[in-house]
Amino acid sequence: MKTILVTGGSGYIGSHTVRQLLDADYKVVVLDNFANSSAESLSRVSKICGKAPDLVEGDIRDAVCLNSIFAKYKIDSVIHFAGLKAVGESVEKPLMYYENNVYGTLNLCKVMAANHVKNIVFSSSATVYGDPIELPLNENLPTGKPTNPYGMSKLMVEHMLTDMQNADPEWNVVLLRYFNPAGANSSGTIGEDPNGIPNNLMPFISQVATGKREFLSVFGDDYDTHDGTGVRDYIHVEDLADGHLKALNKIDQKAGLFICNLGTGQGYSVLDMVQAFEKASGQTVAYKIAPRRSGDVASCYADPALAASELGWSAKKGLQEMCEDSWRWQSQNPDGFPK
Ligand code: NAD
Ligand code: WQD
């Protein structure tokens, strides 16, 4: 039985991935400082699958803590989710983002190498492509200039891990570029639990549907898209989680450096999402057209062909399932996890 260290494993994508890892009979150690989550997500994971991960409360910037984990467990690979992800906050507090996301990852890799663990799967983002020069986005396109420190921190880590793998080919580095995660486990017991007013579209729509927010502001209806609103590639979080298990298989086959999109290849507009959510929930989602949000691009969607050919992965769940599962989570947990 292989042991996987999952940093940030109590967060949104992490908790869904931990559930799948446990179901697939991995032993799982979660390291999380609860900066943006609580241990409740993992208690619920245990209820879903009847197994529990080991949990260490600690920080990826803390080498002593990391070393103690590698001393205690025979870690095979690390899935590295831990990081801060609020785009607006990163503009206000850039150093906090570079310290947490870039320095934190550097520290993690140093400790991994010192403990002879050289397999890592990293949570990157489609944001590294910047303003798309071509659609769909494939991995051979050059990375662009992310419009905020959060995105820049992801690009910096991609460069850092690439250089590290070039210098020492014993490393297996899988960089997964996520498109827009949405949905929740079908039990409705775990899901996305943003702090305060959601920045992202799906949690905002869900909160309008429950009546927690009055209306959705649609950021711009004059983009060059089929209905003028922004188009994104929404991917079910369970599909995304499955991509990480496939990435571990790729590491077993000596991945070297492997960079891969995780998206569906299908773009939906903001108004498509509103309509699909109304259908799934039976609720009305009130909206008002508002000015464009600075830094937004018109359209962004993946070419998912590489993931299919190299990982044997493709998204299985469509928009309807994403909306139904988000609604089940949101309506059963209108205030998220108990605080
Ligand atoms: P999340 O905030 O729910 O999960 C991140 C977890 O990391 C949280 O549990 C948080 O407490 C923990 N954490 C943060 N800093 C830490 C530190 N220094 N030490 C230990 N733990 C720490 O976010 P998520 O949506 O699950 O995202 C997971 C990863 O995927 C992040 O790296 C994020 O940047 C990346 N990503 C997310 C999206 C998205 O839209 N959700 C898209 C692309 C990439
Ligand atoms: C989607 C669409 C908005 C909210 C961000 C990060 C990116 C990645 C995922 C981590 C856009 C519109 C949104 C609202 C709206 N995160 N919208 N009203 O911007 O594609 O990506 O999250 O890596 O780095 O930048 O996702 O969900 O914020 O927006 O009209 O209240 O919904 O303009 O067209 P985005 P999003």
UniProtKB/TrEMBL annotation:
UniProt-listed InterPro entries: Epimerase_deHydtase (IPR001509), NAD(P)-bd_dom_sf (IPR036291), UDP_G4E (IPR005886)
Which residues are in the NAD-dependent epimerase/dehydratase domain?
4-255
Q: Which UniProt keywords apply?
A: Carbohydrate metabolism, Galactose metabolism, Isomerase, NAD
Q: Name one GO molecular function term.
A: UDP-glucose 4-epimerase activity
For the keyword Transcription, the answer is no
Supply the EC number(s). Answer: 5.1.3.2
Look up the domain of life of the source: Bacteria
Record keyword NAD present: yes
Q: Which cofactor does it need?
A: NAD(+)
Q: In which pathway does it act?
A: Carbohydrate metabolism; galactose metabolism
The reaction(s) this protein catalyses: UDP-alpha-D-glucose = UDP-alpha-D-galactose
| Matching Pfam families | Epimerase (PF01370)
Q: Assembly and interactions?
A: Homodimer.
Name the protein family: Belongs to the NAD(P)-dependent epimerase/dehydratase family.
Task: State the protein's name.
Answer: UDP-glucose 4-epimerase
